[in-house]
TrEMBL record:
Organism: Hymenobacter caeli
Keyword Transmembrane: yes
Protein name: Uncharacterized protein
Membrane-spanning intervals of the chain: 34-56, 65-83, 103-121
Protein keywords: Membrane, Transmembrane, Transmembrane helix
Keyword Membrane listed: yes
């Protein structure tokens, strides 16, 4: 008989915050697409701020924390990239073969590193601990 599947439940207040976060994120990216600089730049703070709060609130669940920290990194990279295009330093050469836009890779890669650590180290460790606990 298979073990019962674990259920992850999100409190209604958290769900409302996550939905508001999606709204801000969409407004930021639509502003980027439409080159509405002021609105796009204004949307960085609430989009990133709510992502940080969500990550903080999920800090007790390693899987959720890893994914939410990766989202914080994604929004950071995405916001930097948007600003680099708005202020036209995206094509500025900062090193051979590297321009201003490429610096967005730093937070993108940090987020990827967090997820790689979770999936290659943390999750297998949790699976081993669960097997030992089941014995």
């Amino acid at each position: 008989m298979p073990a019962p599947e674990e259920v992850y439940s999100i409190p209604a207040a958290y769900r409302k915050m996550e939905n508001t976060h999606i709204l801000f994120w969409l407004l930021k990216d639509i502003s980027w697409c439409m080159i509405w600089k002021t609105l796009g730049l204004l949307m960085i703070a609430p989009t990133l701020g709510i992502a940080i709060v969500i990550a903080w609130r999920t800090r007790g669940l390693k899987s959720e924390l890893a994914h939410n920290l990766a989202i914080v990194c994604w929004i950071t990279a995405n916001s930097y990239w948007m600003a680099s295009e708005f202020f036209r330093f995206d094509a500025l050469v900062v090193a051979p073969g590297i321009n201003g836009k490429h610096l967005a890779l730093v937070p993108f890669l940090v987020g990827l590193g967090i997820l790689l650590y979770y999936y290659l180290v943390q999750k297998p460790r949790e699976a081993r601990e669960a097997q030992v606990a089941a014995l």
